[in-house]
């Protein structure tokens, strides 16, 4: 007949198993969930950081592993899971939010799968549009235009083709009116461009502050993501713990039932003892009060006992007790 195990060893084994499951849930290596690693070259990082999303057709497919400087270009390493990446795939850094968060968008192309050691070249990648640089370029270009000379040239062109067909002459008249409008609005356009240039300068001066703001926001989002992952792992471990506890209770119910019944008996005995102690304390209070009255007047017992002598009978014991 097999020897029956006690509840204590079984409980210790169950606790050890549960601790092992929780440790495994929190220490699963990242390589288990990481997809295939690829790399791409970009002319600039444009604010892309490690941990940013990688999407294929708008669906999350991986994460950016690292962003490193490689000579005159930036090398972005990323992983892709459950998505096909062709040998002519293009990649672009896109703007995710108005605060400047970025993500990596892939457009899978080609006939064969992209090799794991292959790099998407600079010719098939694109960085986001820089508004500050565009304003600076526009301002510099228009500042170099001679609006008076442009108006004179358009007027000369209109006069030269004045004898042509009505359709051409109408178009040239429109050009002439356009040149006059440009010439009359030259000062306003210059002020507008000067203001635009000042705005671009302010934005450029505030670029470090914007970068710090975005960097701090990215750190906050990364910390929130880490907390979310930790809570998810904790929930998974709790579910596994619940399953193990159910199995432990089911396997050891016969051993635990007598133990629980014995604990109930011990609890009843302790309750009775507690009631007895309460009663003893209650009666002890009366005894203590009377004893204090007897010895409270000095180093002797001072008490008064009535009824030991006869009741008053005429001249005998006239004072009674």
From TrEMBL:
The entry's keywords: Membrane, Transmembrane, Transmembrane helix
GO cellular component: extracellular region
Domain Mce/MlaD per the UniProt entry, residue ranges: 39-108
Lineage: Bacteria, Bacillati, Actinomycetota, Actinomycetes, Pseudonocardiales
Source species of the chain: Pseudonocardia hydrocarbonoxydans
Listed name of the protein: ABC transporter substrate-binding protein
Transmembrane spans: 12-32
Mammalian cell entry C-terminal domain span: 112-299
Superkingdom of the organism of origin: Bacteria
């Amino acid at each position: 007949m097999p020897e029956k195990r006690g509840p204590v060893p079984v409980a210790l084994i169950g606790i050890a198993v549960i601790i092992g499951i929780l440790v495994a849930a929190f220490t699963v290596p990242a390589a288990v969930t990481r997809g295939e690693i690829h790399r791409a070259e970009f002319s600039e990082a444009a604010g892309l950081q490690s941990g940013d999303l990688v999407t294929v057709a708008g669906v999350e497919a991986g994460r950016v592993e690292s962003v490193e400087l490689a000579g005159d270009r930036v090398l972005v390493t990323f992983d892709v899971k459950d998505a096909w990446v062709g040998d002519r795939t293009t990649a672009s850094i896109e703007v995710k939010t108005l605060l400047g968060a970025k993500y990596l968008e892939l457009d899978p192309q080609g006939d064969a799968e992209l090799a794991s050691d292959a790099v998407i070249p600079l010719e098939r990648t694109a960085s986001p549009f820089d508004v500050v640089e565009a304003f600076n370029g526009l301002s510099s270009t228009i500042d170099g235009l001679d609006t008076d000379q442009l108006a004179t040239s358009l007027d000369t062109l209109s006069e030269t083709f004045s004898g042509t067909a009505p359709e051409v002459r109408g178009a040239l008249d429109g050009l002439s009116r356009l040149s006059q409008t440009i010439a009359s609005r030259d000062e306003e356009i210059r002020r507008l461009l000067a203001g635009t240039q000042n705005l671009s300068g302010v934005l450029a001066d505030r670029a470090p502050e914007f970068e710090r703001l975005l960097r701090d926001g990215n750190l906050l989002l990364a910390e929130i993501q880490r907390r979310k992952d930790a809570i998810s792992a904790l929930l998974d471990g709790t579910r596994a713990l619940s399953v193990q506890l159910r199995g432990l209770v089911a396997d050891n119910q016969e051993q635990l039932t007598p133990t629980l019944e014995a604990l109930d008996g011990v609890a009843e005995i302790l309750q009775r003892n507690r009631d007895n102690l309460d009663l003893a304390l209650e009666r002890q209070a009366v005894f203590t009060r009377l004893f204090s009255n007897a010895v409270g007047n000095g180093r002797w017992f001072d008490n008064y006992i009535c009824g030991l002598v006869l009741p008053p009978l005429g001249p005998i014991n006239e004072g009674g007790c």
